[in-house]
Amino acid sequence: xxxxxPALALLLIATPIAAQRADRATPGWVRVKLETADGPIVxxxxxxxxxxxxxxxxxxxxxxxxxxxxFYRTARNxxxxxxxxxxxxxRTDARRFxxxxxxxxxxxxxxxxxxxxxxxxxxxxPGSANGNFFITVGAxxxxxxxxxxxxxxxxGRVVGGQxxxxxxxxxKTGGGMNGTLMLKPVRVDRAIRLDGxxxxxxRPRPWLIEQRRDG
Length: 215
Fold this sequence. Notes:
Mean pLDDT: 90
Structural class: alpha+beta
Distance between the termini: 70 Å
Order of helices and strands: HEEHEEHEEEHHEH
Low-confidence stretches: 1-18
Radius of gyration: 18 Å
Number of strands: 8
Strand content: 25-35%
Shape: globular
């Protein structure tokens, strides 16, 4: 009986992760759908273990700050190009910018950079992430926390549209960021929260005013 207890505990821990699906809600997780020009991507965000990072992402979603952005970077492994990551978000568009957020490392959250993990991108030190993110294709352990490396803040996983992610990874690249910028970025038409009630920040959205003027 004693031998069964650890096994049962592991099963209970693993079950919520295994139960995540694109077509239904999972307690402690919030699904978001990205409608891209290459097809939909459904994310499950781990609000229980990465609350600050998840809530930040949802603010961008609920405000419409990701509507009209693009997947602009695809970084493939040179030896195994079927693996790597794709990156999207507001880039340097200050009109869409919200506040920077505390760094929730993989050591703190336990969310490692496995296949189809969503994580926060940043140029500066930990705590400088805001509205840019990436999705891994294949495990990327170099992005996890180590004593010598703060790593990146993983906060969820892709539960639908994995084929779309792989199509984006295969897009042609060139130019800046060591040749990883996409020649034809893939537009994100809309980002939609699928679970819970949207909570817009109420902060100004000047890019919408400019779009109306251009129209």
